[in-house]
Design brief:
mainly alpha, two-stranded antiparallel sheet, 2 strands, 69% helix, globular, disordered N terminus, disordered C terminus
Length: 215
C-alpha cells in the first residue's frame, strides 16, 4: 500500500506547471484591465505587436476556459511528470521553454496555414503538444502505452476535423474551439520529441529511466 501511495504522489519538480498556471492567472487578470491586449490577433500582430504570438496562448475567453485548461496542465503533469523528456529531475526553465516554443510554433502555423483564424485564445493547443511530446517520451523509455496515447490523440484530432469542434465546449468557453491549434500542437509536439530523442541518443534515455519512480 505504501508503494502504491508513493507512486500517486505529486511528481517532483512541479514548479514549472505551477508557474505556468500562475502566469495564466496573472495575464487573465491583466486582460480584465487591458481588454484584447494579449490575445492572438492577426491584424495586431501584422502591425508589430509580436508579443501576442506568445501571450495569446496564456489568456482565455472566460474563467471556465481558464479552469478547463488549468486542469489539463495539472493532469498532464500528474500523468507524465516522470517521463524522460519532460519530468522528474528536469528544470523549470526546460518546461517553460518547451511551452514557449510550442506556443510560438503554433502561432507561426496559424499565421502561415490558417489565415482565416483572426483571433485565438487559450493554451489547449500547447496542451496537445505536451501530450504528444510526453507520449513519445514514453516510447523512448520502451513504454508501449505511448503508442496508444499517440493514437488516441490522433483519433481525437481527426474526429474534430471530421465532425467539427465540440458545441458543448464552445458554449462553455463562449467561443468556437480552435481545432487548428490542436492539430498544430499535436504535430509540433511529436516532431520536437522525435528530434530530441534522435539527437540525444538512446543511452541517455536508458540512464534517465532509472529515475522515473525513484523516491
Amino acid at each position: 500500500m505504501a508503494d502504491y501511495l508513493e507512486r500517486l504522489r505529486f511528481p517532483a519538480d512541479s514548479i514549472g506547471p505551477l508557474a505556468l498556471l500562475l502566469l495564466c492567472v496573472l495575464l487573465q487578470f491583466s486582460q480584465s484591465l487591458f481588454p484584447d491586449a494579449f490575445l492572438y490577433e492577426r491584424a495586431a500582430i501584422a502591425s508589430g505587436q509580436w508579443w501576442r504570438l506568445l501571450s495569446g496562448h496564456l489568456v482565455h475567453t472566460n474563467t471556465a476556459h481558464l479552469l478547463l485548461n488549468g486542469a489539463g496542465v495539472i493532469a498532464l503533469w500528474l500523468v507524465f511528470g516522470r517521463s524522460a523528456l519532460l519530468g522528474n529531475r528536469h528544470s523549470v526553465a526546460r518546461y517553460l521553454a518547451l511551452v514557449a516554443l510550442l506556443a510560438l510554433l503554433i502561432s507561426g502555423g496559424l499565421w502561415l496555414w490558417f489565415p482565416g483564424v483572426d483571433k485565438y485564445y487559450g493554451i489547449s493547443g500547447v496542451l496537445h503538444g505536451l501530450f504528444c511530446f510526453s507520449a513519445i517520451s514514453e516510447l523512448s523509455q520502451r513504454r508501449w502505452s505511448g503508442a496508444l496515447l499517440l493514437a488516441g490523440c490522433a483519433g481525437k484530432v481527426a474526429w474534430e476535423w471530421i465532425v467539427g469542434p465540440s458545441a458543448a465546449t464552445g458554449a462553455l468557453i463562449e467561443a468556437e474551439v480552435a481545432i487548428s491549434s490542436h492539430l498544430l500542437g499535436s504535430i509540433f509536439g511529436a516532431l520536437l520529441a522525435l528530434l530530441l530523442w534522435i539527437t540525444s541518443g538512446e543511452s541517455i534515455w536508458r540512464r534517465q529511466s532509472r529515475f522515473d519512480y525513484s523516491s
